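SAMPLE LOG
Freezer: B-3
Tube label: C17
Construct: single chain, 359 aa
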Amino acid sequence: MHGVSANSRPSGPQPQSPTYDSAFLRACRREPVPHTPVWFMRQAGRSLPEYLKVREGVPMLESCMRPELVTEITLQPVRRHKVDAAIYFSDIVVPLKAIGVDLDIKPGVGPVVAEPIRRREDLERLRDLTPDDVAYVTEAIGMLTGELGATPLIGFAGAPFTLASYLVEGGPSRNHEHTKALMYGDPELWADLLDRLADITAAFLKVQIEAGASAVQLFDSWVGALAPADYRSSVMPASAKVFDAVAPYGVPRIHFGVGTGELLGLMGEAGADVVGVDWRVPLDEAARRVGPGKALQGNLDPAVLFAPREAVEAQTDAVLRAASGLEGHVFNLGHGVLPTTDPDSLTRLVAHVHECTAR
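STRUCTURE (predicted):
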């Protein structure tokens, strides 16, 4: 991967940018905020009736490639919930599809890869990603930044380990047996696979930043399946390569994974400015594990939103208390919004956090 050229200016939010002083970006930079900012993973989609209406009859991957549709879906939760940041509507396998990997997202299953990658010659199917491969992303983000004004847009990508897991398993996996067999059995091929995926991921994030994204999040959905020693030796170098590649742009870099309580410190070491925490570890304990110099994001259990309003507020207040001593805190769920969540619960949650933390 090539970094930002000497003749180009980093395109991250500058002091004159309308998003620069937003509560979200200030929290990511560990600066004082007017209130704790809130956004939700998977806020753009699934739980919103307006999302289901515009997506009707449109396959998932196709919906990610239609700029007008991406723009509308990304804006929906901002309009409805008054969240402090938008998350670009896409899917982590979009860059793989863009470079020609034969895959599809099957309803109720997830990404399914026609020919899993398990041999060295299979690497030849993973070519470099160019901006032209994802021109629809550039177009959609251009439309979005015009509509969002002072609300920051978060770009995102799947982390090398999680992409590798989908590619090696051929789809979602409970035990990641093929993935771990390759990682342990052919460490050289494994390292080359993750290195190539790091290049593809970095290129995809650069496209989003250069188009106007104010921050980026690297999703490592499956990395909680690994022991810390395996993460450090077999995964962290590729994640660090991604973060290093986008560092010159100066946008906050968020790193999130599920079941990563034992990995939080290492995920921070990989280069994130903000470490996402799932609901299993209280934020004060997460801060101890991550160490100083990082903001944290999280971490209400998504299932709490199905409880009565008083219980939701009590659990939210517990998260806010645990976060009270943090250098920077972005309120989020500990994973994505569940499909059957009542949207009004999310709207009330945003208002409650804003009200409780107004300074």
